[in-house]
Design goal:
Keywords: Membrane, Transmembrane, Transmembrane helix. The chain is mainly alpha-helical. The chain is built from 4 helices and 4 strands; from the N terminus they run E-E-E-E-H-H-H-H.
């Protein structure tokens, strides 16, 4: 009898220990299907679901961290430019708020790695995944606020303040549509398709 490892997909010629009797989950993450999207394949176990969610969080973290770290580095460099000394009080306050938001976003988006490192080996993967998911959500909200403040800071230097504020408002509506409204709409559509 050969056994295929669920983690690596490798087939070994040796029968492995029996899998624990995990409860099979259908409707993963509120959506039918083992992969959480299209309903293909058998339902996943609770362990498989936690492992999948952890892998997804790591991928999301890699994408978000890159963006926030580049933005944070850009913001830190501004304080050392010659023009920084000529900024108005409003622009200086806006800059400080933006840097604090960027630092907070960086901390929240890197938190899943620290949480995992501190709790590794303690058989707390479900709790780690839940905490990491909450920190990712917090980090993404902070990142959106950081981008709004950065945009206002830059546009305020080249446009009259009312125009800068209108443009930032429009861009943030676009962010809300892309980052929050669209995913919730897709989720609702999937739930409606499944029916009661």
């Amino acid at each position: 009898m050969t056994v295929t490892s669920s983690n690596s997909g490798n087939t070994t010629g040796v029968a492995g220990p029996p899998e624990p009797a995990d409860e099979r989950l259908d409707g993963v993450d509120g959506v039918d299907g083992a992969d959480g999207f299209d309903g293909a394949g058998p339902p996943e176990t609770a362990r498989e679901r936690v492992n999948r969610r952890w892998t997804e969080i790591l991928q999301e973290t890699r994408v978000a961290q890159t963006g926030v770290q580049i933005l944070f580095g850009f913001l830190l460099s501004i304080a050392f430019t010659p023009r920084f000394g000529t900024l108005s009080t409003f622009d200086r306050v806006l800059y400080v708020v933006t840097v604090v938001l960027a630092a907070s976003s960086t901390a929240a988006l890197i938190a899943p790695v620290s949480i995992h490192r501190c709790l590794s080996g303690l058989r707390m993967k479900r709790e780690v995944v839940e905490a990491a998911g909450r920190m990712m959500t917090c980090g993404i909200v902070l990142l959106a606020l950081t981008i709004a403040c950065t945009l206002l800071f830059i546009l305020n230097a080249v446009l009259p303040t009312p125009f800068a504020q209108v443009i930032v408002g429009g861009v943030m509506v676009w962010f809300a549509l892309c980052w929050y409204v669209l995913p919730f709409r897709l989720r609702r559509r999937a739930a409606d398709r499944r029916g009661p």
